[in-house]
Amino acid sequence: MAELDIALIGAGGIARTHLPAWAALGARVRVYAPDPHTATLAHEFGATTADSLHDAISGADAVDICTPTDTHHDIALTAIAAGAHVLCEKPLALGAADAEEMADAADAAGVRLYPGHVVRYFPAYARLRAAVAGGELGRVAVARFTRTGRYPTWSRWFADPGRSGGILIDQMIHDLDIARWLFGEVIRVHAYQRGHFTAPAPAGAVATGGAVLTHEGGVISQVVGVWAPPATRFRTTFHVAGTGGTVRYDSLAAPGLRVTGTVAEEDGIPAGDFGESPYLTQIREFAEAFAGGPAPRVSARDGVAAVRIAEAAAHSARTGRAVELTATKEGTPT
Amino acid sequence: MRVAVLSFAHVHAATYVELLRDRDGIDLITADPDAPPGDATRGRALAERLGAPYADTWDEVFSLPLDAVVVCGENARHRPLVERAAAAGAHVLCEKPLATTEDDARAMIDACARAGVGLMTAYPVRFSPAFDALHRSLTDGSLGDLVSVHGTNNGTNPARIRGWFADPELAGGGAVMDHTVHLADLMDVLLHGEQATEVYAQANTVLEPDSPVETAGLVTVRYPSGAVATIDCSWSQPPAHPTWGGLTLTCVGERAIVEFDAFPRLLGGFDAINGRARWEPGGTDLDAAMLDEFLDAARTRRRPRPDGEAGLRSLRIVLAAYASLRTGRPAAVG
With the CA atoms of A293, A294, A300 and A301 taken in that order, what torsion angle do they form, in degrees rounded to the nearest 10? Predict the structure, then answer.
């Protein structure tokens, strides 16, 4: 793969997961963010910094957008206008219209736009997709997905629905995308959300959301998201049942290494998963596509469709009604 | 005291017979005159296999002085047996769901009230000590206010053993009727009998395409206090699975997340003799604990818990779920 020049925009949590991936792939990265920690972060991963968004994007092969969701649209259009490919952190945008405009602009400019639906790259979910697509579960009837992590109080914008879309759009979009990837287009959504949804969220804030999806092929699925009390360990689960049996997953159930006897709560012994970072798997696939390689497992239209479902879920949560979705040009998920 | 088990239609009947047979001070009588002729899994054949005294007709049972009866008929056939038991002055434990219509449930409650006998709905899970501890964590404030609740009650399709479970008239529905009520009753305990206001449900027959009733369902229940419960009530446990299924309830509170498993696995491993996974549940015998409550209430002539009103409140949730299934929209309860 040719060495890529990457403009990484943002210096928050997701930038910290993307930077080591780009470094591992030998990309030259310059980071821009209006954030005092930018230089330290860039230095940590052998990247440089840019003084402005324009300077960062200028001449870049691809732009990696790791900023709050409400800024994705404008940064992506700027990058596309400059002829750069784009990796945009999920959700593509707060609304489907903006997301669609981004995808259309990329098409018109002949550049690639990929949404960072990284859960498709987590081994359990990739394997689940293969099992479902390969018919190992027979005809799937019903599925559940949960995603639980501490309330993202480390950055103020998450708690602000005007910037993040709230838990339904920011967090649950992961599993909304997975459900559509596995079971096909969603024709009806019913959702709710409860808890704390204003910024700044106080320490100890809690929020939950739930969505029931009806897929055009008849599968019904449930997505639950929790922004939980501070000492909560990050955890995702799924359970899928079909005529060929069931499959279940719990990210905390079978770690490669479990640490139980420590003096303090965080004792510095790394535990959990030791395979390749799914962020690296994702970014490698995108980087190869930027360089003319095969299409990745997720497309810009998938990103638009995920936002459309999440937006419908948010609408349902506001109104209390079920929302019917009609076929759009995103077509069948790939 | 003399206790009658009326009908073996429900799969739980044999369990009750065995528990009552082995108790001191219980004079057991059973009857199953509506059993299909020649069905070796019911009627006199089952009673003899269980070593339980058997009467050939309802008249024969009701000619005896009865202190208490356990009604295990098909869901739609509870009412005449309950009314007759009440008229005979017997306290009643009725299998869940209490009835398939609100009119029937109300008539049963009224008949027992008029006769001055107790009416209990068979919800064994609320007798779990672990659930009791969960309930305490809510009442003593350590869980904080309830934000959302996520329940699963999955099992093998009971119609494989008892065909009437798939008869819309006799069962009143499928998985939604059979399984939603257990979780609805746990919510009834947690919310002190607060009647739900709205239900959204989606269901399908993918797992059993020829089934006249739904075999998978996802139900969302809203309560006046704001709490929301999502329920997977599917008959999605594969028939060859070493255990019938299970019931779990995850409570997201303002201060903690608590997960309850009504049938936690005691032993795992692999059964090489039968060539399948070993999966042996542990925990308390919930049916025995439920019978303790029923028999004690009957002996002391006090009101049993959960009573008929509790059975009616959870039935209303199920009836609203079916209303929602008909329209594809959330339906009001009651």
Answer: 150
